[in-house]
Amino acid sequence: MGCKRHSPAQLARLWLSSFRDARNGAERLTTTRQFVIVVGYPRRGHGLVASLLDAHPDALVAHELDALHFADLPFSRGQILALVAANSREFSDRGRTWGGFGYSVPDSWQGRIREPLVLGDKKGARTARRLQGNPKLLSQLSRILAMDIRVIHCIRNPFDTLGARIRRAPHTDPDKLIDAQLGLYHAVAELDTAGTLGQSVLIRHEDFVGDPRTQLGRLCDALGLPPDDDHLDAAVRIVFTAPLRSRVHFPWTPARVACVEATIRAVPALSGYRHEEHAMTDTTITDTAATKTATPLDATRRAPPLTPQAESGGTARRA
């Protein structure tokens, strides 16, 4: 169910299967309090964040479902929630490998649910592009699901993100790829400024990898998920000890560096990133209002920094 595009026949099958599932058991998902959407860019660690959330006993997060797409189609609340549950279960059954990385957390609740407090979907860059084309999709999905939508905005040093993407697409013009990626940064920043992303949670990959237990715990708190030491203990074991410096695999010319640095200066979420090193100014898990005022979230009610992942879009161990 992680298809990039669905044919009319595939959509018809998904409609029928989700209708059946919604009637035959997914009704227990109706107690879900909140839906999360992971938004961002390719190769910046969102897959790890989504899978570690899915490992919590009270959360189900789909992998590449593209929930916003179904919000623009005749799918009901129960059907979309049933699709999330089926996707999470199927990705877990397949071993949770993606892009050469493994996201399976042993002895966790991945693909299963104890009490359905939070459901969601990770579709990354496609989500950003859908919102760029139709900023009303989030509010549309919120109306269908009759619940709040919380956006998780994952970022990583742009030089590492681009280095990883260019390395994986050796036959693509790197300057065109850089232009497209920088354009996406600006597009998401505009959505955030316009209030489209609502009270989003910003996660910096480097912070997350540097202290995954603390950062994952803070993210769960921000989403209203109860603390669970077993979940945190199991989840941190699959995270690399340091982010990959993917920028070193690409010959950065002064002009290319200047182009990326201009975007870093223009996009508040990227503040503090540099070409030379990963060191950044202090960051925290923040909501949209906090991001715009450059003020960390009150640690007593939400939480500080989080971070993206390694080269393949996740700082999980290689499969």
Query: What is the global morphology?
Result: globular
Number of strands: 7
Main β sheet profile: 5 strands, parallel
CATH architecture assignment name of the domain at 8-159 and 197-244 and 284-293: 3-Layer(aba) Sandwich
CATH topology term of the domain at 8-159 and 197-244 and 284-293? Rossmann fold
Strand content: 5-15%
Helix tally equals 13
**SSE series:** HEHEHHEEEHHEHHEHHHHH
CATH class of the domain at 8-159 and 197-244 and 284-293: Alpha Beta
Gyration radius, to the nearest Å? 18 Å
Biggest sheet strand line-up: 2-5-1-6-7
- How much helical structure, as a percent, in the residues? 40-55%
Could you report the average pLDDT, rounded to the nearest whole number? 84
Low-confidence stretches: 278-314
Q: Distance N terminus to C terminus?
A: 20 Å
Pairing-aware structural class of the strands and helices? Answer: alpha/beta
Fold and architecture overview:
This protein has 319 residues and is α/β, with parallel strands linked by helices. It has a domain at 8-159 and 197-244 and 284-293: Rossmann fold, CATH 3.40.50. 44% of the residues lie in helices and 10% in strands. The protein is built from 13 helices and 7 strands. The chain has helices at 8-23, 46-54, 67-71, 77-93, 124-133, 137-145, 158-168, 174-193, 205-210, 212-222, 229-236, 254-266, 288-293; strands spanning 34-39, 59-63, 97-98, 101-102, 118-123, 148-155, 201-204. A hairpin with a 2-residue loop joins strand 3 (97-98) and strand 4. Helix 8 runs parallel beside helix 12. It is globular and about 60 Å long. 50% of the residues are buried. Residues 278-314 have low confidence and may be disordered.
